[in-house]
Amino acid sequence: MKARLGEVDASMRQPAMLFLVSAVFWLLAGSAFAIMAAIKSTNPDFLGLSEWLTFGRVRTAHLNAMIFGWGNNVIFAVAPWIMGRLCKARIRHTNILLAAGIFWNIAVTVGIFGILRGDMVGVEWLEMPAYITPLVIITYALIGVWVVIAFRWRQSEHVYVSQWYILAAFFWLPWLYTIAQIMLIFEPATGVVQSLTNWWFAHNVLGLWLTPIAIATAYYLIPKVLGRPIHSYYLSVVGFWALALFYNWAGVHHLIGGPVPAWVISAGTVASVMMVIPVIVTAINHHLTVVGSHKDGWASPTIRFVMFGAINYTVVSLFGSAMALRHVNEVTHFTHFTVGHAHHGVYAFFTMIMFGAVYYMMPRLLFREWRNPFLIRVHWWMCGLGILLMVISLQIGGWIQGLEMNALDADGVPVHTFIQVVENTKPWLWLRSLSGLMLLVGHIAFAINVFWMIFSPKTEGQVTQPTLLTPTTEET
Predict the structure, then answer these.
(1) In Å, what is the CA distance from 303 to each residue of 75, 109, 210, 220?
(2) Residue 358 has pLDDT above 80, yes or no
(3) Domains: count for the chain
(4) What range defines the domain where residue 449 resides?
(5) Which of 42, 47, 219, 441 could form a disulfide linkage to 53, CB 3.0–4.6 angstroms apart?
(6) Chosen domain end from 106, 138, 158
């Protein structure tokens, strides 16, 4: 028997709120670490008396708090909720999700503490100590099994595009994480295979975990809020399979110029360029669904954040394909351009879409409206402008940095010394620090609104499921 959406929401309330509250906590913690790291990049003596707060530890704590603390917690809230709604079945065994939420946040807390005390592993995006790995694997298994069970007992005959992406992501991540842990930590490969495995894992965490979840969320929320069907079902099929086919190879283009077999680099370059296919078809589907409803979409915080993320998915992916070209990579490699590109994908695309999902979810989970429209506007403008300032400053500064490092005179002598290049990047890093402060203000506004809603009185009557939420409904 098909369950009403309200019944699904009520059954998901406890586990979803556990993950959401944890996500907000890690968002604030990660933002604090980010500000420390940004200041240290231009003022190394800042908090320099504590070995726990050196640049290497603080920046690593920031990255892991944002990816594993904020990112995975919000995914574990949003993805099962969307899956439950699309399956139209009463949600059972939510205690599995509650247990997973407790285990996951214990693991992240211990892992961040281990990084700060110096126990980190020198592998990008796997820096948390190896002793938390069993707990991480148990958590992934619990949530993945729950998602599969929910899909198995679905009451809807149709399988929606959002469900494809969510199921695929929950199959891909354990595969990525297990292989990386074996080949990089427990039975580490040697030589060039280690570098290949590292980039294969780090790049695919974004492309085969964060990306499909964000795309699934956009595919669910855009038609839901606007009350319009997605533009083309067939384009969504092409986009899904093209992502699955090409992204797995794309990460190795970061090793251009390294001691890697030429065919591997060429395969990675071709795959990165071919990623234009899923990006373009997904962009067509998302943007043409909104055509004619831009004014209505602007009235909805959900659509504002989701479309901001969808637009940046297109832009950052095209930039990524360009960076795989050898003559571009010669300039951008080993520069702040690559750092800006990473923030562009993880924040401007993934995180902004997740913000939109939270603005849609919480009123339905708690039967309450958002308490303060001003805080929503502060969140939107500070985060939107802040991440754009960060990406632009790092990528322009990084491009100039790359040109200066490569500049040679007629005798083949570098035009600029390394110290001169470092000094010339400082103004761009100051802008990065400013953008970090803007993001922190936005995150604080978001957190205040979230906790205000949690502890506010229940709204009279159930929050309805309108096709379009007006400003007075969704922003008050």
Answers:
(1) 18, 33, 19, 11
(2) yes
(3) 2
(4) 335-476
(5) 47
(6) 158
DSSP per residue, 249-280: HHGGGGGTTSSS-HHHHHHHHHHHHHTHHHHH
Q: How far is Cα 461 from Cα 459, in angstroms, rounded to an integer?
A: 6
Q: Are 469 and 295 in contact (CB under 8 A)?
A: no
Burial of 97 (0-12, 13-18, 19+ CB in 10 A): buried
User: Is 350:313 a contact under the CB 8 Å cutoff?
Assistant: no
The SS3 call for residue 408 is strand
Cross-strand pairs, 386: none
Tell whether the model's pLDDT for residue 259 goes beyond 60. Answer: yes
In a domain, 93, yes or no: yes
pTM: 0.93
254 vs 209: which has the higher pLDDT: 209
Query: Which tokens sit at 457?
Result: 């009185």
268-288 confidence digits (pLDDT tens): 999 999 999 999 999 999 989
Q: Alpha-carbon torsion 381, 24, 222, 170, what sign? A: positive
Q: Give 3-state DSSP helix, strand, coil % of the chain, rounded to 5.
A: 80, 0, 20
What's the whole-number mean pLDDT along residues 188-196? 90
| Tokens describing residue 198 | 């590292």
